[in-house]
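Many introductory courses stop at the sequence. We go one step further.
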Amino acid sequence: MGTFFQLLVNGLSFGAIYAMVAVGLTIVFGILEVVNFAQGEFYMLGAYLTYLVVLAQLPYPISIVAAVAGMTLVGLLVERLAIRPLIGKAWQLPILSTLGISIIIQNGAIVVWTPNPRTIIVETASKNVEILGVVLTYQRLIIIVIALATFVSLHYFVHRTKTGKAMRAVSQNKHACQVIGIDVRRISTIAFALGAGLSGLGGAIVAPVMAIHPVMGILVVIKCFAAVIIGGFGNIHGTIVASFLLAVVESFAVAHVSLQYKDVFAFVAMVLILLFKPHGIFGRKVGI
């Protein structure tokens, strides 16, 4: 039974990372109807920003704030320069634009930091805590706690604040929102920056427990696409549930099947969901 809970907690900690990046993807799609292929690179840059701040011997919490703020700013710039001019044109153009940004950021990171993996050492990654027989590092506990706090805050923001309600309205009907005076462009900018900031946060909290390298975002973002499809494009709650579900399945698959096949489960689940629930496990169409 102890092993079961150990695998469950391990899965939840990775699920928190997947959910952080995947929710950013689904918000951007829900508002802008753009598939952001650069989301994994925002996650990677968030990890590198954390690395640089810790390298400067500043406290780890400051590095988290720096990563979120830095990636939010990057999201603002990308939306203004590479996404907004293409809105309303052929649907392929924004997708190609994000794909190009992904390639530029990834290769830029290789030039600046080389392909060699980097690691950071923080105290929370080396100390363990035991809860009900389950042993985990403080850092994995921090990952789960920060993720839950973020999702609760996000739920409050989307459902209780004026801007959040406007985001939900825009995701349902842009033209009606324009008629009643909602600034759709402003909402789109906020959504893209929010998505980038969430990815930056994911990179910051995972940096102490994983190697940091220029292509670290690729596999994560592929899993996140699977989570978004399983949860339903534009469905925040569905995406969070699917992310945790995928990570827990992977955790048990590694322990009981093989490490080599752990990625297969995510894509098998995605195919099955597409066959039987084309709009995701909650059966909803686009709309956050």
